[in-house]
Write a structure and sequence with these properties.
There is one protein chain. The protein is mainly alpha-helical and 153 residues long. Strand 1 and strand 2 form a beta hairpin. Helix 1 crosses helix 6 and helix 2 crosses helix 4. The radius of gyration is 18 Å and the shape is elongated.
């Protein structure tokens, strides 16, 4: 495997992950908004690493346009996943934080299994094969997750 193979595998895994999540947003035409889901997930990941931040700071760290970050924050706020408040040090700036507790939407997304979309991507109905790949993915997730002991220098 080389860097290109790894990158392409990552894209494939991202698409399988998107298929595993419960559909929340549908455009009027009925198509899912995959790019919007990706943006929301990038913003969520940034908020985990930076618990109190602003739209501009998220945009600077992630490379996303501020308008996309603002849209993602609005969706997260509507779902009850984040709260916003004026920065006491600079009232023109709005701070974003994860909401206390977990809203039902967040719980539904976290509870969604990956077995069905993974089986479809693997082209198998064999539960043992799917379980083997799920175990490998869980191992990678533990080893490569931000802050894991394996990633520390």
């Amino acid at each position: 495997m080389n860097g290109v193979d790894l990158f392409l595998l990552g894209r494939t895994l991202m698409k399988i992950g998107e298929e595993a999540m419960p559909v929340a947003d549908i455009t009027p035409s009925g198509a899912t908004q995959a790019a919007g889901v990706r943006t929301v997930l990038v913003v969520v990941a940034d908020l985990r690493a930076h618990p109190e931040t602003s739209v501009g700071e998220i945009a600077a760290r992630t490379g996303l346009p501020q308008s996309a970050v603002s849209g993602a924050v609005a969706r997260l706020k509507e779902a009850g996943a984040v709260v916003t408040a004026p920065d006491p040090a600079d009232r023109r700036r709005v701070l974003i934080r994860q909401a206390p507790g977990r809203p039902a939407r967040v719980e539904a997304v976290r509870a969604a299994g990956i077995e069905e979309p993974l089986a479809a991507a693997l082209g198998t109905d064999d539960p043992a094969q799917v379980a083997e790949v799920v175990a490998a993915l869980e191992f990678l997730a533990r080893r490569l997750a931000p802050g894991s002991a394996a990633r520390r220098p």
